Amino acid sequence: MKDSRLLDRDFGTPAARSEKMITLTVDGFEVSVPEGTSVMRAASEAGISVPKLCATDMLDAFGSCRLCLVEIEGRAGTPASCTTPVAPGMVVHTQTGKLKDLRKGVMELYISDHPLDCLTCAANGDCELQDMAGAVGLRDVRYEAVDTHFRARNAGGDVNPQWLAKDESNPYFTYDPSKCIVCSRCVRACEEVQGTFALTIEGRGFDSRVSAGMMSDTFLSSDCVSCGACVQACPTATLQEKSVIEIGTPERAVVTTCAYCGVGCSFKAEMRGDELVRMVPYKDGKANRGHSCVKGRFAWGYAQHQDRILKPMIREAITDPWREVSWDEALGFAAARMKAIQEKHGRQSVGVITSSRCTNEETYLVQKLTRAVFRNNNTDTCARVCHSPTGYGLGQTFGTSAGTQDFDSVEDTDVVIVMGANPTDGHPVFASRLKKRLRQGAKLIVIDPRRIDLVKSPHIKAAHHLQLKPGTNVAVVSAIAHTIVTEGLFDEAFIRERCDWDEFQDYAEFISDPRHSPEETAALTGVPAEELRAAARLYARGGNGAIYYGLGVTEHSQGSTTVIGIANLAMMTGNIGRKGVGVNPLRGQNNVQGSCDMGSFPHELPGYRHVKNDHVREIFESLWGVELDKEPGLRIPNMLDAAVDGTFKGLYCQGEDILQSDPDTKHVAAGLAAMDCVIVHDLFLNETANYAHVFLPGSTFLEKDGTFTNAERRINRVRKVMAPKNGYADWEITQMLANAMGANWSYTHPSQIMAEISLTTPSFAGVSYEKLEELGSVQWPCNEKNPEGTPLMHIDGFVRGKGKFIRTEYVATDERTGPRFPLLLTTGRILSQYNVGAQTRRTANTVWHAEDLLEIHPHDAENRGLKDGDWVRLASRSGETTLRAKVTDRVSPGVVYTTFHHPDTQANVITTDFSDWATNCPEYKVTAVQISPSNGPSTWQEDYAAQAAQSRRILPAAE
């Protein structure tokens, strides 16, 4: 989908949702549109453009610019077409002599107070003011303004008090008030689309200005979250990307998909030659609907960063410096080592780790590599350490391990539970849509040990915040279920029709036990009984109820149990199978859903089918021409344990930095150090590469074709914007490694890999690149029964047949506080950084978050003599590190919180090896710790930094 600007045109006002159609006549053309449509949009639907400046279809009509005036037969005056709704039989004229004169007069007033530096303006050729001056036929300006907003001195030579300097504080865009026409589009975008309310119009009349907060505030110091909505909305060069100022106006565009979080936003990558100028949210993107966040919109500079490794490298031992070699030598070296390991230690001695950063096609090939070439099932993915309990819990209860809704569904919800997720930081575009629904009246219940922004922020406030103690998720969910069952708030008709009634009876008997009551669990969870009961009643009685959850649910020793408990809540209240309801995991990485779909787990082939299933293996055996192992392989923790034991010796790790992202860093390091061949396939020399013997340079999402699958099961195209700087896309590199190992793969394009996926995987049976080009995207299952995909799951019945209720016994974690470690550490993400920070740390996003900080409650800080900004020692039973303290009441007494974006901190040296009972998902969210004053880095940090520096030496290239 290249050169897509024409597909992304602006209709002036949002589309109406009514199903009733209205017919009217515009300039002699008859047009039918939904009731509630504006005259402006109706004209646009008929192919007639009405001049406009304050209007855009991303925002509600405002009616301030007075350019879009029309005449309507039978009505007096010249109403604004953007704020006038259509009516049956209405006859509209958009081009009359009267209208032309009025529009020219209005435009003259705008131009008289605007700098006419069009030839050197960064928006030249991309300026709506310029376009509209041409559209209304303005050729001369009769007025000469004495006082203007763009001249520093007036006619008398005195300093003009109205003149303001540019605000260059934001690293990505500039604000030039001299070019502002006070259309309010930026302010409205900040309110209506983003929901931050950071911008306002201060002053009146000639003194009117866009302001980013208080008088002393800049865009950087204000509440602005740099989502880019204001820049996108601005019709002039008032708000302009610095990249456009530096490079020039883009000349072509390619629609692709963001490679950050699981929302899966669609963007137009706007190019000048082979240079990326800017990323603009694509309005037809069904996941983001034309919105974005700071990461997807602006943080793409890592693709050109000097740290990128673009040539293959090898070394005999991890103590040696790296040596740049040809692709043939690197792949030959890697293949020879892996073959030698298997000859000496057996077929099970090597394995792979797939990436949730890479495309479905690339991930499919990596798991195929281990199964068809290495001949074992030793494949795992980062979903192991984030959402594997989702796969197990939803698979057991509903029959499929994925979210039930599309993101549009939030527009129809009445009550939302957000549990263990922080959408404004982790999934900000979805959060904006959620906040918009909350401002319209939906109620919110937040279940989180930390006071996240959704608890209270401009114009929204949670009805209930259940601030539980980390590790007590199951107890809280069970107490909610206890209230619903014992107070008779469950939907008996739904349960009898859609679920197993006998299983519900058994579950109801279990959950009705007084030990699950809010009163009995309050001391354990820290949640007041009445608050919990009120929240349970709201969810059960409040209309359409939707549950959204994140890693605060799954990354626990009882993560799978909590997911099952959440599914139980949805089933017992009938909140499944229609718009506005459901159970929705907020997936962390861009393709974590896809990496699971593609068979990256050691016990499952693509499509979540067990490797022990003979007829499933036969499908792949006949296609691949090899016999597959029917025994499940090793999970990531098992690989590391086996490496320490000396039985696992070789690893191909594509796009994952397990040394920084996985728990118990010292154990991960020991496992990697014990291997004979570690192949790292990535963009940068990451932390895991410290222990690698082969480095294969990867390609960014801008340099490849393929697909990502987001958190709503939406399969989106990724399109190559520029040639791979390393020479190859990642799927090509995996194919070359497989062929070096003796395979005979011959794919020439990712579409051929998708064809193989659709041939072997039932939920992808109807997916093809041709269909994705035609429809834009589809949500699996996409097959003969659902040829255009499935936005809502479980409408007529659950995938497994009857929904299954399962008992959820609370079992306390083995990680306990005590005199030595009296506090509980929980971890999470922040808006400006992403995961291990490999990408975002190499962009200007470091302006907002240059280091990991430890949030600590004022009570705990005072007891330890700590102040805001002090260095603190953070220690657990696993290890210790140091970082700066941030004293805040966002956390409760007894709880501390940090992020894990910076390798200098290595927060996971603190976390333990405890994990979920069903899936081995690590218990990141509950670690007993102690904090104390510190003078600087720990001994371990100093040793680690020295080892990393030693490991990253690269020999100069041979002449």
Automatic annotation (TrEMBL):
A Pfam entry, by short name: Molydop_binding
Domain 4Fe-4S Mo/W bis-MGD-type: 251-307
UniProt keyword terms in alphabetical order: 2Fe-2S, 4Fe-4S, Iron, Iron-sulfur, Metal-binding, Oxidoreductase, Repeat
Name assigned to this protein: Formate dehydrogenase subunit alpha
Keyword rRNA-binding applies: no
InterPro entries: 2Fe-2S_ferredoxin-like_sf (IPR036010), 2Fe-2S_ferredoxin-type (IPR001041), 4Fe4S_Fe-S-bd (IPR017896), 4Fe4S_Fe_S_CS (IPR017900), Asp_de-COase-like_dom_sf (IPR009010), Formate_Dh-H_N (IPR041924), Formate_DH_asu (IPR006478), MoPterin_dinucl-bd_dom (IPR006657)
Residue span(s) of domain 2Fe-2S ferredoxin-type: 20-98
A GO MF term: formate dehydrogenase (NAD+) activity
Domain of life: Bacteria
Bilayer-crossing regions: none
EC annotation from Swiss-Prot or TrEMBL: 1.17.1.9
Enzyme superclass (EC): oxidoreductase
Residue span(s) of domain 4Fe-4S His(Cys)3-ligated-type: 98-137
Stated family: In the C-terminal section; belongs to the prokaryotic molybdopterin-containing oxidoreductase family.
Family matches, as SMART domains: Molybdop_Fe4S4 (SM00926), NADH-G_4Fe-4S_3 (SM00929)
Keyword Iron: yes
Positions of the 4Fe-4S ferredoxin-type domain: 171-202, 215-244
